[in-house]
Amino acid sequence: MSAVGRVRYRSEPSFEEVAARYPNFPRLIALKIDVHRRGVYYTQRALSNVDPEKHQIYGWNGISFPHSLLLRDGTTLLVMPQTPDKDPFVVDFFDGAFWLLNDGAVVEEVEIWPKPRYYDNLTRSGLRMGDVVSARPQRLDLFVTSFCYFYHVDEQGCKFCSLPKLHKTLRSEHKLPTRLNVDDVRECFTEALKEAGRFTNIHITGGTMVKGSDVGDLEVDYYIEILKAIGDTFEAKKFPSQLLATSYNERQLAKLKENTGLSSFTADIEVLNEEKFNWICPGKARWVGYKEWKDRLVRGVDVFGRGNISTGIVGGVEMASPHGFTSEDDGLKATLEEAEWLAERGVTTVHVVWMPAAGSQFHDLKAPSLDYFIRLSQGLQDIRLKYGLTVDFDDYRRCGNHADSDLARLYYADR
Q: Which one of 26, 215, 362, 414 has the largest count of C-beta atoms within 10 Å of its C-beta?
């Protein structure tokens, strides 16, 4: 990697130096955080050894690359490729294996996600099934709508989010509809579930729809239609599933639970501080509001039960300039205090690592330090332990995108 590629994080301590400060924090989870924070760059040698018949491939802007990676203990890496000037980790291939390198030094062996068997099958409407229902190593992912009202209509999308522009490209390249047809969804799940033992959970999400007598009514009705179509592929009424959607009121949540096999619900607040929330997520602030979002999460516990309502945050985005926290200690304190307030009331909080992404308004900013994310991950897990909350529907197998819930498998292994 060139000297230019190291400029962005050159002033920081190395990964090994930071990991050494936390001897009780699992090294591979710390590595996961740093890879998520900085991204990866695939060498040409690595790309030439990717097997489209064996490996899960992701195509964007006419370029194909591995969907993502696994560490040797099964820890999932969910990370987008970066250009060398962003100082990413490097994925290379030699000695018959793929390797993760940092500044030229070998860090760990990695595996590319295995390709599900159903991926290249076509629906009756002619869509490739892998484009309709994607997969993580042990989870089926359904993104039912690729249109977010906050972004496309109000132009008030979350400033860290690159999905609207990404989905516009994917719709163009893969001819996917803005809103999926339930028959296509049912066909895909029927095929996917033939791979016995592969998948442990179903994750459903999509862009926000605000229309209805109450904001989100039409969105709720559509999710019920989708969930019923998925339920047709199961014998039991309930199946392992998670819906990540807009913040719903109690009536809407009760309607979801009564009419589907849904077992948990997530509404990502993104930022646990009202001032930063209003700046970073103006659409959510306008249509729901910070206090109401939190109150709806708490009221949702009465519908789905303690520990079955969760929220997600984009960890580190509260430090974004120019209006974010200027001190990592202050940002961490504010975030964990709000997460504990929710935990006291039965709501689980998990975080993803903020990596400024191309296509987002924050694309040219810098993420906080590895030290910050280690403390955030440990802090969120400590809060769950304190209040007796588990994160079964968002753990290392059912999601894989949260370093703090990766920690949970170590703490709950003997329970």
A: 362
79 belongs to a structural domain: yes
> Could you report the per-residue pLDDT of 146-186, keeping only the tens digit for each?
778 777 666 668 999 987 666 666 656 666 777 899 999 99
Contact 248, 209 (CB under 8 A): no
Residues 187 and 229 in one domain: yes
| Of 346, 335, 334, the residue nearest 391 (C-alpha) | 346
Instruction: State how far the Cα of 370 lies from the Cα of 373, in Å rounded to an integer.
Output: 5
pLDDT digits (tens, 9 = 90+) for 125-149: 999 999 999 999 999 999 998 778 7
Identify the bridge partners of residue 100 per DSSP, sorted by sequence position: 91, 108
Domain residues for 40? 4-112
- Asked, for residue 58, whether it belongs to a domain, the answer is yes
Tell me the per-residue pLDDT of 185-235, one tens digit each, with 9 for 90 and over.
999 999 999 999 999 899 999 888 877 788 889 999 999 999 999 999 998
24: left (phi over 0), alpha (psi -120 to 50) or beta: alpha
Cα 154 to Cα 86, 187, 215, distances in angstroms? 31, 34, 14
In this structure, are residues 309 and 300 in contact, taking their beta carbons and an 8 Å threshold? yes
CA-based nearest residue to 90, from 78, 75, 101? 101
Q: How confident is the model at residue 64 (pLDDT cuts 50, 70, 90)?
A: confident
Q: Name 108's bridge partners.
A: 100
